[in-house]
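INFO batch 0412 | record 1 of 1 | parsing
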Amino acid sequence: MTALLLAGVVTVAAALLLLALVVLPAGPQRVPLERLDPSRGTSSSALSGAGTAASAAVTRLLRRGRIAEGEAALERAGISKSLPDFVLTVGLCALGLGVVLSLLAGVLLGLLALALVPLGAKLLLKIKAGRRQAAFADQLDDSLQLMASSLRAGHSLLRAVDSVSQEAASPTAEEFSRIVNETRVGRDLNDSLDEVAERMGSEDFTWVAQAIAIHREVGGNLAEVLDAVCRTIRERNAIRRQVKALAAEGKLSAIVLMALPFGIVAFISITNPGYLAAFTASPIGYAMLAVAAVMVVIGGLWLKKTVQITF
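INFO prediction complete | emitting tokens
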């Protein structure tokens, strides 16, 4: 067992050393002038060729619908990495962690790591997407105010959108810059606005897209319309922040109540391990653990529904 563990550690260390020597640059390097010649083909190293082949293999394994769904999830999270590269990175991390834990703590823990790493990556995407959508909603009223000011100054609608992409913070700047780029290559502005509203999950921006679409059809003073929408969005944001502050105590209570059983079990397992051994000594104990798990799940869902306020 000791020899196997030593061999695993040496293998991981050698892999990290090879990665550092091949991938990481040794110092400042000059770009060869031959790369400026478009007639010359691009030379690829063995490592880049292997990465390209692995990405192509992952693409073939993914179904067509799953590819579109995964790319949409990466866009919502603001991750510029392509879906095959992301899946390959998560797979390599899961495999490496599984091998290391299998050598150090056993095969069962290694298999558990193989299952939990993809779930953790999916949870990370949801968290990043939620934070990005919340930041977009918080910045929307200031962005509309900037658009209205640009329109009053005599700029066109596309120039006003471009000013937001240059002056606003992320993620608003990224989304508005995407609108400008898509419009410049021939896509309809209304379609780009609707896609941003759907990607960011913003009902407020849906109103903005509808207001701009109506203005493009019937005309009128778009600056005044944006001011009215901006006031409505600002009032909604104020109400949302107030509700969030009032519900913070309930959410904290829910977190404490959900963590309390696990904390008590951890404390008893450290102070008196024999007390919990009775639950795994008979079928009745396993039945009690199953009932407790079901009750915890039901209580968690009930607490989540209680503190989740929709308005």
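INFO post-check: Confidence is low (pLDDT under 50) at residues 16-29.
INFO record closed
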